[in-house]
Amino acid sequence: MTDTHHPFGMRAEHRTRPLRGLSDETLEAVLAAAEQPAAALSRIVLRPRGGVLDGAPWDCECLALWPPVASLDRGNVAWVDNAVDALDRAAVAV
Questions:
Q1: Domain assignment present for 2
Q2: Global pTM?
Q3: What is the CATH number of the domain that holds 49?
Q4: 10-residue averages of pLDDT along the chain (94 residues)
């Protein structure tokens, strides 16, 4: 269902984090990560969950998408790792 967003053969690293809120610290972490994407098709998306299932009304999706070139793997995976780590640190700071 997401073939247009994830073409066949592309490599990807994808993580989703629930967010309890959109504090200044959380938004700053999202913006800082988004300012330096690993690849042109990398993205960070904030989505409302439509209800508070576990006290987290938001989801944050971090996706790096790159062509099948082994030399690009490390940088793209590291970008997702760093973005998620920054979100986790911001959530702890709130």
A1: no
A2: 0.79
A3: 3.40.462.20
A4: 66 88 86 81 86 76 92 92 86 60
